[in-house]
Amino acid sequence: MSIAVTKLRLKLSSGLERPAWRRSVTRITLMLLCTWLATLPERPHAHTVPVQPIPAPAPPGPGSPEPVRVQRAPPVAPEDAPPETSERPAVGVDPAERALLEGRLDEALSLVADRADEELAFVVRGRVAAARGALDEAEQWFKRGASRSPGGDAALDLGLLLIVRGRQAEAEVVLERLTEAIFRGDRDGLGFARAARARQALGEPRQANALFRAGVQASPNHPAVHTGWGELFLEKHNTAEAVGSFQTALKLDPRWSPAIMGVARAHADENPSAAREAASQALAINPSLTDAHLLLATLAIDEDDVATARQALSRARAQDPTNPEAAALAAAIAFIEDQPKAGETEVARALTVNPRSGDVHRIIGERLARQYRFEEAVGFLRRAVELDPEHPGAQAALGLHLMRTGDEAAARAVLERAFDLDPYDVVTYNLLGLLDTLDGFQTKQEGELTVRMDPRDSSLLGRYLVPLAQEALSTLSARYEFKPQGPILIEVFPRHDDFAVRTLGLPGLLGGLGACFGRVVTMDSPRARPAGTFNWSATLWHELAHVITLQLSRQRIPRWLSEGVSVFEESRAGRAWGGDAQLAFVQALANDEIGPIAELNTEFSSPKTITRAYFQASLVVAHIVDKYGDRGLRAFVRAFGEGLDEEGAARQALRVGLDELQRGFDAYVRHRYAAALPALRSPKGKIPTEGSPEQLVAIAKRYAGHYFVQMAMARRLIKSGRPDEARPLLERAVGLVPFAGGEDGPHALLANLEAKAGRMDAAMAHLDQQLAQDPTSIEPVRQLLQIARERGDEARLDRAARRLIEIAPFDAELHSTLGDLALKRRDFETAVRELQAAIEAGPDDVAAAHTELAEVYWQTGRPAETKKHVIAALEVAPRLERAQELLLAVVDGETKKGVR
């Protein structure tokens, strides 16, 4: 069992009550202590642990293994806004402690051989024993050191070790003394930090935070104090502050391996590649750092790289044979591979250290959740809280995953319990607040489909979203010959942070649009994002495709294939969805930057490659359908549900191995993009970017076969007021890369040039081409609407308005346009729907909108509805003649009916 100098992520693992007399003493002690700490001056960047949730950087990450449509934002860089420190250098570290920090364990022992009576000697011997898994020996060394110095490092390590071993009552006695030691004069920074870690381990983060603040004030130049504070923030999900503290420690001592490991853990969810790099850096300094091997194993498990995970676990166990986390991760691998007997053997091994530990099953449950297997995860997390009902982390994780399975009532009860245990946990607080928000949502039930939406969205957006969801499930169920288990729950959030909390427990998830957990889909409402950045219809279809593939594969499908199917099914829906990353992918393909299928899951873990990974995965699926048909794709997805790995599934379903599938895919994409590839290769040498218009035209001619050169020169010519010279370059760019889209792409620029020149038919043709490649941009849609309305082109007007519903459905004018078009076709049902939507969207002229709808009702023989909307119009504009006329007609009709 490795107990690093700054390892603070220990959870309470016993339900024993603290003795009443001890609680009273502690309360009085802490009141006095916090009163004294309040007199300390705040530093400019003082840290606080919030009671209320705070915005955090976008979490997982990580490649978040859940099928989340995410282009992850880069993680908070370690150098961002670090806490201020003194100009003085870091304090010196005893050579024996330095040897421990760098994994030179035998050397550390030799350095204290002649210092037998010093506390440090007992600490070093205990830590070496613990690092090698000799916990009984470690405990004896720590006890001997603690007896000499009840407020020292040996006492802290003893208390933490006793918690790990499940002896909470004994641990509390030891750890309480650390706080009391401050009143005996042990008020240096390390003394405060020890007391802080003790309070943290006892579940008192507010007091721990105050003590760390005092520690930094007293010893601003000791990396251990900053590292400990960072661990507290990381435990409470405040990643930005945690990274700041770790970076401060590393500025003081670049080889402080616990701080490097802190950075690694901080990035684990957000950016696994950065976490992996940091863990490797820590191992370069301290090869015996068990925590680093365990983190690398965890990251590999989450990326389906079981071979690498086993190697990392083997290294961890060679160092620390009794480590329960290593056994829990080995158990997780066994359960993921559907080997329950092997899994239970590892569970038993993990529980030998502490038979009542909730962490073992929590770790297994969380790893299964990363594999999409949420129902199984809930089962393991229930076992975790059965073993340790007082484990707030296990309770919170169970609550989160119950929400992911759609059991929100059970989730609330569990989360309330977690909050009682730890009211400072941000995830628990956020999830309970989110459940309160959901209480105010409106529910639409259509068979096995349940849709929950904010009341502001429910009526207007619901009239489009619910039928589209039904269409998607019907279409996809038929195509994959599979009816998913219901009920299927869809929740739509008008605040993005609510969606993020519902999905991951924390605000952020800046690139996330939607998520699927098998029977639960969560997503942003169009209100949650600026218009023109989000196509809610495409996202809904994408997530419902995940419902099919996750359930069809019994939640065992690799992430790359599930995402690939979802993007591919977007493109098959025939609405110009799914191709927005095409240009980025083909450019990478042209420059030989595309990885193999076998490494696609890893591509989803990197912010640099995740966008094109989505599209690459969809092309693999397109190749499978092209060569093996829908039957082959269905069989491939279903094979994972039989427990086969990628190689086995490919051989069973497609009759080829991964190598042959790769060769076929390579040929497929290079043939598909043969014409565009030369145009997207990076040209050799430096290309001039400045010059006169004539020089710009000459540069473009010299590089006539390069798409990006044509675009760069064309944009500069347009900026210089030379549109006529720019037009041929843009047309050349279209010929080189016909699928290029974007509001700054060739079709968009050509549409603007043609419109300014009065060539409206040509402008509309280019806008058509742009919208065929770009499912989210709003300005080209508005431009096409305007031109089509002026030209009387009803087909284009209808098409553009329908696209706008997918991007900005709360635009009243577009609904009025669709209503008018429907009236011309005498499609009264559609006209009523759209004109009603126009009213709900908040039109500029409310009276006119009600009157227009009243006229439709009058034409279709519905006088009661006519009267209702006429009165609504007259309440706003009493002198509106058309409304007055309609009201008279209704009243006259009622009078004649009464006479008859």
Largest beta-sheet characterization = 5 strands, mixed
N-to-C CA distance: 94 Å
Give the total of beta strands: 5
Strand content: under 5%
Structural class comes to mainly alpha
State the assembly state of the protein chains: single chain
Rg (CA only): 32 Å
Provide the helix percentage. 55-70%
Global mean pLDDT = 88
Low-confidence stretches: 1-28, 38-88
- Tally the helices: what do you get? 44
- Mass-distribution shape: globular
Order of strands, main sheet, comes to: 1-2-3-5-4
Key phrases:
single chain; 900 residues; mainly alpha; Serine Threonine Protein Phosphatase 5, Tetratricopeptide repeat; globular
Notes on the structure:
By secondary structure, this protein is mostly helical. The chain has 44 helices and 5 strands. Among the domains are: 553-676, no CATH class; 811-900, Tetratricopeptide repeat domain (Serine Threonine Protein Phosphatase 5, Tetratricopeptide repeat, Alpha Horseshoe), CATH 1.25.40.10. Strand 4 and strand 5 form a beta hairpin. A 5-stranded mixed sheet has the order 1-2-3-5-4. It is globular. The N and C termini lie far apart (94 Å). Helix 21 runs antiparallel to helix 22 and helix 42 packs antiparallel against helix 43.
Provide a short characterization of the protein structure.
By secondary structure, this protein is an all-alpha fold.
